[in-house]
Every structure is written in C-alpha cells, then in structure tokens.
C-alpha cells in the first residue's frame, strides 16, 4: 500500500531530485530529464521521441546517446518489422529505477511488443502537451490528489483496485497506469485513456473508478486517445461516456437495481431456483452494458456504487463545460505496429 503523502510533496522538486540522481550515471542534464520521463511514463521510447524532446535532428548526438544506453546495459534495443524498419529502446536497468525511487516499477520488466507500442502512444502525448505537468507514478498521483483534496476525499474513494484479503490485502491506486495532467494555476486536470479495444468495457470501469475524484475537482478533461485501428469505435465510446457521466440513475431505478443485484447474487448461489417474473422484468430493464459493469463493481463495493451513480454532479459539470471529453485520433506511425495495440 502506498504510504501517506508528505505535506510538503511537490512534483517539480521530486522530478529535480530524480534528474540529479540519473545524471549521476554519466548523463547530461537533458538526457537525464528525458530518461526520467521515459521511466515514469512507460519505460520505452523511439529515437524520434528523444529528438522531439531535445529539439534536435537525428544526428551524432542522438547516436552517441543511444550507444551509451546500450553499451552500458541501461537499455535494450529492439528491432521490429520484417526488414528492421525501426528500433525502439526499453530502459530496464534496475539501478536507474532505484535512483528515482521506483525499484519495483513494472515499466522495467519484459513486456509484449503490443504493450510497448501502447506506451509509445501515451509517451507521445506527454511529450507533445507542454501546457500540463504530467503525473506518471502511482506514488505521485496519490500524493498530489491527497494533498489537493484533503478531507474531501478518502483514500478508498481514489481510483484503485484491491488485491488479496485480510492482512495480505493490497490497494493499488490509479491502476490504469496512465498519465494525469495537472495545470496548477487554473486547477485543471486531464485524465488520459488509451483505447485498446473496440468494446468500451474497460473504459466504463475506468470512468467508474475515477468518478468520485472527478466529482471533487473544479475542472477536468477526459482525453481519449484513439489509435487508427479503433477509429470506427469512437461513436460506441461516446455512447458509453454519455451513459456513465451524463445519465444519472433515478432514485426509483436505484431501488429496483439494488433488489435486482441482490436477487441475481442469491439466484447464482441457489442455482436451481426458478426466476420470478419481477426478476425477468428487471433483467430486461437493466440489460445495458453499463449495468453489467455496475454489477461487477457492486459485488466488490456494495450499494455505495449505486448511490454514487445517482449523482448529477458529473452531468452538471459537462453542461457547464467545467468537465470536458476529447477524442484524439493518433496520427504517428508506430513502427508499422499499430495493429498490435490491444493484443498485449
């Protein structure tokens, strides 16, 4: 479980300390800043991303940087494509991650090529949008929002997943491992979601996990990144957004939903017991995908998830434009491997 954040936690100071620690391995200040961003936001990069970060053309300086990473064992080069039409680099050296106080970060672990391409896509966003500072680690996100929200939000209301039970139970915050953008002067926040399936089941769960946090914030944006293979699914994702954020469940429907969920669980245990007419009517009424996701969450969190679904706060924020949703179709070529997204 993530420890309690310091009252003096500051993202800029944290990153400065990380950059100094990485520079001690023999990197320039610019190279260290880039490597810190890589490790925090995915663990992988392609040379054009370093060029964009540094504002330089692909020449001798880039070649020397990449050679240093590989020869010293800091990163592993990966040739991709039938004709080796591109290279990506996986920064995996454990002492580097230890230097930024992330020794167990999964970004350094082996991963399928499809997952690497997904992380490259997210990293492009971080590099391109300079209007926001980007939170990447679980520790940073937890510390920032605990300090920002104070007593308005409890730990259990932050996005999380729980593993295990009893004394071995572990709560992982912001389990989607996607960047969160913060703009401190206007107190704006951007929550990133990368589409990896044409079916928005995981997206609905992402929205539910973040709902309590979004209700607490003054201004927020959900930025949905859409790789080219999933462009045709955008209308389906818009529908899911409208259902989850802009369509609160009525009090009458909430009462029936609580009964239906309890009955569904009871019948599952009873197995052979026939279903009542009321159950069949409720099953038809609550057949939409949003209720399937809500049932799974209800099994874990109980009636609180149904009560929260009645809140009009997110709908009202969208109406006022304090809450926004953006769909961004990704245009970069990712080593001709975009089709691997979602198969990791």
Secondary-structure topology with pairs:
Layout: H1 11-23, H2 29-40, E1 44-45, H3 47-54, H4 60-71, E2 75-80, E3 86-91, H5 94-99, H6 113-128, E4 133-135, H7 138-149, E5 160-163, E6 170-173, E7 180-183, E8 188-194, H8 201-216, E9 219-226, H9 234-246, H10 251-270, H11 277-285, H12 289-301, H13 304-309, H14 313-320, E10 323-329
Parallel strand pairs: 8-9, 9-10
Antiparallel strand pairs: 1-3, 2-3, 4-7, 5-6, 7-8
Helix pairs in contact: 1-2, 8-9, 8-12
Describe the overall structure.
- This protein has 344 residues and is α+β, with helices and mostly antiparallel strands.
- The chain folds into 3 domains: 11-125, Arc Repressor Mutant, subunit A (Orthogonal Bundle), CATH 1.10.10; 133-245 and 324-340, Trna Endonuclease, Chain: A, domain 1; 251-309, no CATH class.
- The protein has 14 helices and 10 strands.
- The strands form 3 sheets. Strands 4-7-8-9-10 form a 5-stranded mixed sheet, sandwiched between helices.
- The longest helix is centred in the last third of the chain and has 20 residues, at 251-270.
- It is elongated.
- It starts with 10 loop residues before the first helix and ends in a 15-residue tail after the last strand.
């Amino acid at each position: 479980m993530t420890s309690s954040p310091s009252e003096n936690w500051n993202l800029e100071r944290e990153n400065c300390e990380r950059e100094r620690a990485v520079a001690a391995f023999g990197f320039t200040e610019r190279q260290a800043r880039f490597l810190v961003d890589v490790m925090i936001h995915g663990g992988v990069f392609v040379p054009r991303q370093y060029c964009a970060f540094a504002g330089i053309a692909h020449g001798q300086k880039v070649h020397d940087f990449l050679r240093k990473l590989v020869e010293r064992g800091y990163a592993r080069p990966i040739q991709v494509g039938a004709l080796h039409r591109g290279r990506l680099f996986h920064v995996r050296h454990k002492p580097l991650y230890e230097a930024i106080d992330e020794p167990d970060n999964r970004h350094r672990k082996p991963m399928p090529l499809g997952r690497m391409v997904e992380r490259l896509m997210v990293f492009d966003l971080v590099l391109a949008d300079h209007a926001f500072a980007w939170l990447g680690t679980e520790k940073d996100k937890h510390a920032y929002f605990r300090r920002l929200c104070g007593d308005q939000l409890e730990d259990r209301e932050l996005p999380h997943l729980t593993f295990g039970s009893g004394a071995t139970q572990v709560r992982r915050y912001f389990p989607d491992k996607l960047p969160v953008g913060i703009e401190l002067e206007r107190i704006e926040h951007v929550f990133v979601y990368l589409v990896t399936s044409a079916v928005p089941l995981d997206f609905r769960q992402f929205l539910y996990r973040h709902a309590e946090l979004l209700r607490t914030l003054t201004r927020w944006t959900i930025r949905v990144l859409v790789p080219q293979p999933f462009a045709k699914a955008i209308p389906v994702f818009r529908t899911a957004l409208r259902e989850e954020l802009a369509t609160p469940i009525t009090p009458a429907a909430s009462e029936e939903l609580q009964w239906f969920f309890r009955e569904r669980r009871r019948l599952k245990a009873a197995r052979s017991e026939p279903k009542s007419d009321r159950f069949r009517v409720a099953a038809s009424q609550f057949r939409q995908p949003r209720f399937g996701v809500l049932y799974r969450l209800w099994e874990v969190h109980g009636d609180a998830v149904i009560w929260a679904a009645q809140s009009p706060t997110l709908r009202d924020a969208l109406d006022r434009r304090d809450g926004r949703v953006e769909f961004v179709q990704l245009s970069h070529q990712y080593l001709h491997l975009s089709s691997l997204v979602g198969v990791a």
